[in-house]
Specification:
Layout: E1 4-13, E2 16-26, E3 31-35, H1 42-50, E4 57-62, E5 65-66, E6 77-80, H2 92-101, H3 109-122, H4 138-150, E7 156-160, H5 168-185, E8 188-193, H6 196-202, E9 205-210, E10 213-218, H7 220-225, H8 230-235, E11 242-251, E12 254-259, E13 266-268, H9 273-282, E14 286-291, E15 296-299, E16 307-317, E17 320-327, E18 330-336, E19 347-352, E20 358-361, E21 367-370, H10 373-384
Parallel strand pairs: 3-8, 3-9, 6-7, 7-8
Antiparallel strand pairs: 1-2, 1-4, 4-5, 9-10, 11-12, 11-14, 12-13, 14-20, 15-19, 16-17, 16-19, 17-18, 20-21
Helix pairs in contact: 2-3, 2-4
Length: 385
């Protein structure tokens, strides 16, 4: 168990800056997720913590002690890799036992047997102990890789996309199992993923990583409902959030919002004193609204206050479907049930639920405010507590 800190860590590979002044403070026993697109620097952060790679600048600390000069073998971390990294000639038992037989630990065989069987029982794979990796499914290989890490009881677990090669159903069940295992062991865990659902479901807190920088840190609710910019808003959602540009105009004590891409379409914004105060302070005319697909309502028949569009696409994604409607240069994504008789280019009528909108500065793309911000902050604080 350990508190892990990175302070202004920079790592370069030739002329490429992989990490650019990264600072993190990961709490003891926390399940901390590094989330971002491929090539963002997530794995490099793990490698700097593990001691596999050394930063050119900045420090890495375990429980307040600088470990930059401590080699990887003595940092007491356990890594789980995307590719499992099992020894093909060894049985499952011997793969799991291998860390405890290393020169660093040298545990006796009685202790090893007890520990391997204890972890195997917890992970429901006692019947696999005599098999070779070639006799295992991908899901079973991943269990063995995690079991090998768990037998050691290290200070910190480092997991690099461990579920990436599993099918959707198995990924879902393994996510639940991972969270349960981490809670039982109470060990600090740092988990890398580019999967939105993994980040949301696993992390006590999430760090958004992009281009070698930490963009935002917070609970899943805090980042989802109050993204610091449009990049984070688009990353935190599947299907992606709608970004709608327009102009604000004062109307007495409130505001009206006119869509840029739809001539003559103006909405009176629902009242929210805190939001209006934030908009007054920002003094913006041009803004972009983030509206989640589930907050776009639709009808195939004309409805008052709904805007006429045409269907651009209709795609089934698992247990739901996504309709993309088009009007002028604007495309809007919305959630729909599977099995609808939808035709491309047919009429569809949509309404934006503006009382769920997130407001961004059109020029900087930075977060300005949102509806019910105080309630969202309270929810995020409760989640973190």
């Amino acid at each position: 168990m350990a508190r892990i800190q990175l302070e202004n860590v920079t790592k370069r590979f030739g002329k490429v800056t992989a990490l650019d002044g990264v600072s993190l403070d990961i709490k003891d026993k926390e399940f901390f997720v590094l989330f971002g697109p491929a090539g963002a620097g997530k794995t490099t952060i793990l490698n700097c913590i593990a001691g596999i790679q050394l930063p050119e600048e900045g420090v890495v600390k375990f429980d307040g002690e600088v470990v930059n000069l401590v080699d990887a073998a003595h940092r007491d971390t356990a890594m789980v890799f995307e590719n499992y990294a099992l020894y093909p000639q060894m049985t499952v038992y011997d793969n799991m036992a291998s860390p405890l037989r290393s020169k660093l630990y040298k545990k006796d065989e009685e202790f090893i047997k007890k520990k391997v069987h204890e972890v195997a029982e917890m992970m429901k794979m006692e019947n696999l102990l005599e098999r070779l990796p070639s006799q295992l499914s991908n899901g079973q290989k991943q269990r063995v890789a995690m079991g090998r890490a768990l037998v050691r009881s290290p200070r910190v677990y480092l997991m690099d996309e461990p579920l990436a090669h599993l099918d959707a159903k198995l990924r879902n069940s393994m996510r639940t199992e991972l969270k349960s295992i981490q809670a039982n062991f109470g060990t600090t865990s740092i988990y890398v993923t580019h999967d939105f659902m993994e980040a949301m479901s696993l992390g006590d807190r999430i760090a958004i990583v992009n281009k070698g920088k930490i963009v935002q840190i917070g609970t899943s609710d805090e980042i989802y409902y109050m993204p610091c910019n449009e990049f984070v808003a688009q990353l935190m959602g599947d299907p992606e959030i709608n970004i709608v540009g327009g102009r604000l105009e004062k109307t007495g004590a409130g505001y009206a919002f006119s869509l840029n891409d739809v001539e003559g379409r103006t909405y009176q914004l629902p009242e929210d004193k805190d939001l209006f105060a934030a908009l007054d302070e920002a003094g913006l005319t041009d803004v972009e609204l983030g509206i989640r697909p589930q907050n776009v309502k639709y009808s195939f028949d004309p409805v008052e206050d709904y805007t006429k569009c045409t269907v651009y696409s209709y795609e089934s994604i698992g247990n739901k479907s996504v309709i993309v409607a088009e009007i002028g240069n604007l495309q809007l994504r919305m959630i729909a049930p599977n099995g609808l008789a939808v035709k491309i280019d047919q009429d569809i009528y949509v309404k934006l639920e503006l009382d769920h909108a997130i407001f961004f500065n059109m020029e900087t793309k930075e977060y300005v405010s949102r509806y019910n911000e105080a309630a969202v902050k309270a929810l995020a604080a409760e989640q973190e507590g």
